[in-house]
Amino acid sequence: VKPLVRVSGLRKYFHSQQGWFNKTPPVKAVDGVSFDIYPGETYGLVGESGCGKSTLGRSVLRLFDITEGEIEFAGQNIANMSDKQLKPLRRRMQAIFQDPYSSLNPGMTVAQLIAEPMKIHGYGKAQREARTIELLEKVGLKAEHLNRFPHEFSGGQRQRISIARALSVNPEFVLCDEPLSALDVSVQAQVVNILQDLQQALGLTYLFIAHDLSMVRHISDRIGVMYLGSLVEEAPAEMLYTEPAHPYTRALLASIPVADPHVQMLERGGISGELPGAISDWPGCKFANRCPRAMDKCQSQSPVMQEISPGHRVACWLFEEK
Ligand code: SF4
Ligand code: MG
Questions:
Q1: 251 C-alpha to center of ligand 1: Å?
Q2: Exposure of 5 by Cβ count < 10 A (0-12 exposed, 13-18 middle, 19+ buried)?
Q3: Atom in ligand 1 nearest the alpha carbon of residue 292
Q4: Distance between CA atoms of 263 and 46, rounded to whole angstroms?
Q5: Predicted-complex ipTM score
Q6: Is residue 193 helix, strand or coil?
Q7: Residue 174 to residue 138: CA distance in whole angstroms
């Protein structure tokens, strides 16, 4: 089977806007990431806030220009496509974001919100109306909700509206960028169930972003762990939990029961040291200043991703070929 999405050597740098004389180095939000996503799978992408996972997701959808690298979608290289060239592909790649408050226009009704992407992509009126009803039902909302506004709904219901909206145009690939993070734990399971049912029914492929490994365990087929702009480990989901290899993944797993992982993890000593915001040109392993197993080599040389068992890749000098 060929990958639906193929990312290779992807970089996205943000330059500060302070003027030409300001020599602030760019923030390397995504700094050389390669991975594939296969049709029908859920690829979980995990890492602390600020590690670049949202930027990576948005780069894959080409929501902005990237700095360097290749992105293949359904066999086409979209890395350098213009907005005009991307337009016919946009229908096939949709997104659901963390905060359905800010991603849903408060002045539009549910019916308008779900129909809008279809309008953009040229669906006729009758088709839009029929699909809106059908989708509403698929995400567990009722016809009587159609003329209401986003503020009249709970967070979980708003996320259902976002899902219906994203799926209205029949995409193959959906970026789910922390769709559960703003929801109560009891509601999270319902939204996961809806996403999984729809994936089965419609053959969808997901890139599912979360800051917490416990959140992606059951929904993901494979999981990638990101640290400061780089992918540091990738494995089939169960393998990542039973045989975590990278010291960072191990530390993340050690703090799984913590309610607010990225804040409390630091306090609890799951991982010590500061999360270095923008170490741009650090030559060694970016995790070296927090890694309990750092060696001399880690300070000066950046480890490269290598396969340590079938489907299990890790970037760490501890797994250097002997
Ligand atoms: Fe730790 Fe070195 Fe591995 Fe980086 S390369 S994770 S510093 S052991
Ligand atoms: Mg994010």
A1: 12
A2: buried
A3: 1
A4: 15
A5: 0.95
A6: helix
A7: 16
Shortest-distance atom of ligand 1 to CA 303: 5
Ligand nearest the Cα of residue 287 is: 1
Options 3.30.2290.10, 3.10.450.50, 3.30.420.40, 3.40.50.300; CATH of 5-92+171-274:
3.40.50.300
What burial class does residue 67 get, using C-beta atoms within 10 Å of its C-beta: 0-12 exposed, 13-18 middle, 19+ buried? middle
Would you kindly state where each structural domain of the chain is located, as residue ranges?
5-92+171-274
Residue 165, helix vs strand vs coil = helix
Tokens 């990101």 belong to residue: 226
Number of the ligand 1 atom closest to the C-alpha atom of 285: 4
Tokens 């293949």: give the residue.
72
Q: What is this structure's pTM?
A: 0.91
Pocket lining for ligand 1, CB < 6 angstroms: 246-247, 285, 287-288, 291, 293-295, 298, 303, 316-318
The ligand placed nearest to the CA atom of residue 52 is: 2
Q: How far is CA 7 from CA 4, 11, 202, 204, 263, in A?
A: 10, 10, 24, 18, 30
With the most atoms of ligand 1 within 8 angstroms of its CB, the residue from 233, 316, 321 to mutate is: 316
The structure tokens listed for 166 are: 């994203």
Distance (Å) from CA 226 to ligand 1 centroid: 14
pLDDT tens for each residue of 81-125: 999 999 999 999 999 998 767 789 999 999 999 999 999 999 999
**Angle CA 222–228–234, to nearest 5:** 20
Q: What are phi and psi of 244, to 5 degrees?
A: -60, 140
Q: Residue 162 and residue 179: Cα distance in Å, rounded? A: 10
∠ CA 84-2-313, nearest 5°, is 105
Q: Are 136 and 143 in contact (CB under 8 A)?
A: yes
